[in-house]
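User: Reviewer 2 asked us to show a designed sequence for the structure in our supplementary figure. I'm pasting the structure tokens here. Could you produce the per-position amino acids so we can include them in the response letter?
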């Protein structure tokens, strides 16, 4: 009987609280104290206090990745970008594809946009604008092809 009363009280106390999110993952989902949240089909992050760190505005968010400069890849309208560990957008979702950062290309990441290739650096800056059909890594400096 005591269990039923406890259960009833829990349902009364917590059953009527509403969340603006359709789903909330476990905290520490990604090695930090955040939880991935979904709202109206879009994803973001909240911290342990329920404060939004990243507003739900992305179609998908990958885990933070050491091979991606410890950034999390975000997807929006079939484009890719990156968030840093502070929840800041360091690369807006503007590229069709962002490859991993490679030592052989000076720690730059190959990006694709409208079928053309370029590079971004570890600060999220375009160091080679996506305007080439072919780019071959060569030593520590990428070799670019003609458009």
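Assistant: Here is a per-position design you can include in the supplement:
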């Amino acid at each position: 009987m005591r269990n039923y009363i406890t259960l009833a009280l829990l349902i009364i106390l917590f059953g009527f609280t509403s969340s603006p999110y359709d789903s909330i993952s476990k905290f520490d989902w990604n090695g930090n104290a955040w939880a991935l949240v979904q709202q109206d089909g879009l994803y973001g992050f909240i911290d342990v206090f329920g404060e939004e760190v990243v507003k739900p505005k992305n179609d998908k968010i990958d885990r933070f990745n050491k091979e991606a400069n410890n950034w999390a890849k975000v997807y929006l309208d079939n484009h890719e970008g990156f968030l840093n560990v502070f929840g800041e957008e360091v690369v807006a979702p503007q590229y069709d594809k962002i490859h991993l950062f490679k030592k052989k290309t000076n720690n730059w990441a190959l990006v694709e946009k409208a079928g053309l290739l370029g590079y971004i650096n570890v600060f999220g800056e375009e160091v080679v604008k996506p305007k080439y059909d072919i780019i071959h890594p060569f030593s520590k400096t990428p070799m670019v092809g003609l458009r």
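For the response letter, you might also mention the following. The mean pLDDT is 85. The CA atoms of residues 105 and 142 lie 6 Å apart.
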